[in-house]
Every structure is written in structure tokens, then in C-alpha cells.
Specification:
Layout lengths: L1 H23 L1 H4 L31 H37 L1 H16 L2 H12 L3 H27 L3 H8 L4 H9 L4 H24 L11 H7 L9 H28 L1 H8 L1
Helix pairs in contact: 1-3, 1-11, 3-4, 3-6, 3-9, 3-11, 4-6, 5-6, 6-9, 9-10, 9-11, 10-11
């Protein structure tokens, strides 16, 4: 089981590393400007000149694929980080102080979690208009509740631990207990949750961009490329297959990384495996 987890972690890091490095080095690796159009060479298949062919506007697919992961990954990391920060703050407050505060935050989180995420994101992006800001707002509003409820549960367990009671008797303030003793003891589960939510966020961004409510053309983006290629899926299937495989491998690597981190960082899971 341990060897399997190590292999899974190596494969996940390898795939994710290739995607991230190729996106960062896209200006150096891309043979053409990703937005350069050439109608004379539109809808060409893979060739020596264009290794992955060209799209309906004659743009080089390899160049657009190399640039295409930038927007999705940056947005996913930003939205997940903001969601985690909001959810962690509210979850810690609810779990540590309890009472009416806990009741209000839990009810609010349950309301947001009960709303269908995709429909809510489409509604927000539709009302505010398609833009990066509305996309980020939609992702944060639909993701913070999950972080909040899980963090709240962790804090409810940790605040009753004997060492917390001992530190409280020694005069430690609530802020000190939260920052130095509660948050560090739940950071492992938070990291695991973060990695899994990044994958969901990438998929949500791809869905909204495909519907025209996320990343806007002519920005190179894998989901936008799939949307643009719908009319040509019979004559040029590579226009859909290539960016679709990129999204698939990105999600696969993130999920594999989350599973590997869970096996390594989850203390309860390690105890079960040792038994």
C-alpha cells in the first residue's frame, strides 16, 4: 500500500509538473503567437509546420494548448484559496465559540451548500456579466460553505482536547489558542481538502467558460477552445480531443495528488493501515 501511494504521488507530480512548467514556459515553447490568425491554413490536421494542426481561424493549436492552462489553473488556485480563507475563518469562529454564532454560521453555510452549485454560478455570472471578477465571486460563494462546515467539525473536536483546556487555564488568549494550537492541528485535513477542491474548481471554470460565462475569447483557454470547436467536431476532431485531454490529465493529476496526500497526512487512515 505504501509503495502504491508513492507511485501514485510520483505520477501525479510528474503530470502536474509537466502541465505547470509547459504553461509557465509557454512564451518560450510556443512556436507561434496563440492569437495569430491565418485563414489560408484553417482547419489543418497535424503536420510538421503545425504539430497539433490549426483551428477554424488558422491559429496554431500547439501554441494555444501551451497557453491554455494558464487561466484555468490561476483562477482555480485563486478561487480555492479565497474560499478556504473565508471558510476557515467562519468555521473556526463557529466551532470555537459555539452558541448563537455557531448556529447562524452553520445555517448560512447549509443554505449555500443546499443551492445547486452550477446553477448558482451560472446565475451569478449571468447577472454580473461574463468576466474574471464575476467568475471568481461565483466560485467563492459556491465553495466556502464546504470548507466552513469541515473546519467547524475539526474545531469542535480540538477545543475539547486536554491540552487546549490546560493552555486556557494557564491564561492563553482565544486568539493564541486558535493560531498556535488549533489551526496547526487541522492543517493536514485542510491541505487534503484544498487539493480536491482545486480539481472541482478547474472543472467548474471549464464548464462556465464552455458556456461563455468564464474566460472570454480570444484568451487561449482549453474550455474556450472546446466551445469554439463544436461546429467542426466531424471535420476536425483534434480541435476537441486535444484540449479535452489536457483538462482530463490536469484533473486526473490533481485528484491523484489529493489521494496520495490523504494517505500520507491522514493520521486515522495510517492507523487503520498499520492495523
Amino acid at each position: 500500500m505504501k509503495n502504491k501511494g508513492k507511485v501514485q504521488l510520483v505520477i501525479a507530480l510528474l503530470i502536474l509538473g509537466i502541465i505547470i512548467i509547459s504553461s509557465i514556459l509557454a512564451p518560450l515553447l510556443a512556436p507561434y503567437d496563440p492569437n495569430l490568425t491565418n485563414m489560408a491554413s484553417r482547419l489543418q490536421g497535424p503536420s510538421i509546420k503545425h504539430l497539433l494542426g490549426t483551428d477554424a481561424l488558422g491559429r496554431d493549436m500547439l501554441s494555444r494548448v501551451l497557453y491554455g492552462g494558464r487561466a484555468s489553473m490561476l483562477l482555480a488556485l485563486t478561487a480555492t484559496t479565497l474560499s478556504m480563507l473565508v471558510g476557515m475563518v467562519l468555521g473556526v469562529i463557529a466551532g470555537y465559540y459555539g452558541g448563537v454564532i455557531d448556529w447562524c454560521i452553520t445555517i448560512l453555510a447549509n443554505i449555500f451548500q443546499g443551492i445547486p452549485g452550477t446553477c448558482f454560478m451560472i446565475a451569478i455570472a449571468g447577472v454580473l456579466g461574463p468576466s474574471i471578477q464575476s467568475l471568481l465571486l461565483a466560485l467563492v460563494l459556491t465553495s466556502w460553505a464546504g470548507f466552513s462546515l469541515i473546519v467547524r467539525t475539526e474545531v469542535l473536536c480540538l477545543r475539547e482536547e486536554p491540552y487546549i483546556e490546560g493552555m486556557r487555564c494557564l491564561g492563553s488568549s482565544d486568539l493564541r489558542l486558535i493560531i498556535y494550537h488549533i489551526i496547526p492541528n487541522m492543517i493536514n485535513n485542510t491541505i487534503i481538502l484544498f487539493t480536491t477542491r482545486v480539481g472541482r474548481c478547474v472543472l467548474s471554470i471549464a464548464s462556465l467558460s464552455f458556456l461563455g460565462l468564464g474566460v472570454q475569447p480570444p484568451t487561449p483557454d482549453w474550455s474556450v477552445m472546446i466551445n469554439d470547436a463544436r461546429m467542426h467536431y466531424r471535420s476536425a476532431p483534434h480541435l476537441i480531443i486535444v484540449p479535452g485531454l489536457c483538462i482530463f490529465f490536469l484533473l486526473l493529476s490533481i485528484n491523484m495528488l489529493g489521494d496520495a496526500l490523504r494517505d500520507r497526512l491522514d493520521v486515522k487512515n495510517q492507523e487503520v493501515l498499520e492495523c
